[in-house]
Amino acid sequence: MSRHTFEDKLKAIDLYLNKRNSYRETAKLMSATKSDIIKWVALYQKHGEKGLQPTYTNYSVKFKMDVLTYMGKTGASIREASYVFNIPSYSTVAKWKRTFEKQGKDGLFPKKRSRPKMKKKPTCRNKGRFFFYETFG
Q1: Over its length of 137 residues, how does the chain's per-residue pLDDT go in tens digits?
Q2: 119 to 116, 122, 136: CA distances (angstroms)
Q3: Is the distance from CB of 33 to CB of 9 less than 8 angstroms?
Q4: How far is CA 44 from CA 38, 68, 87, in A?
Q5: Cα–Cα distance between 43 and 73 in angstroms, integer?
Q6: Axis-axis angle for helices 23-30, 6-17 (nearest 10)
Q7: Most Cβ neighbours (<10 Å): which of 29, 52, 62, 129?
């Protein structure tokens, strides 16, 4: 969960935009970092209050490519692209960019996640002087 509530973010934006406080002053008043305030203001200016709501989503390969293409054509930074496309964490875009540079488009497809299979461990039973190893399935 975020350390700052939706209302806190709106209050910080109001302090910055309407009260004419600097990013640093606003951050100090709200117990946030300067980069948090910059991010919230940019999201609010681009997407309104909807940009401040938490999002939980899976991004398609096409969407990822759209973001990376936008960055290539406009020269936008990773942070700018994350604001324009309303991606809450710019590190997500940075990860896509690194993956695309190393693996190409194929690296952007979702990876199958599953639990590793448990190994069958041999058990030792002492029957007199001899050891018998059995595996159970």
Answers
A1: 358 888 899 999 999 988 888 999 999 988 999 999 998 998 898 888 888 877 767 889 999 999 999 999 999 999 999 988 888 888 999 999 999 999 998 888 887 777 777 777 666 555 555 555 555 55
A2: 9, 9, 11
A3: no
A4: 10, 22, 13
A5: 21
A6: 150
A7: 52
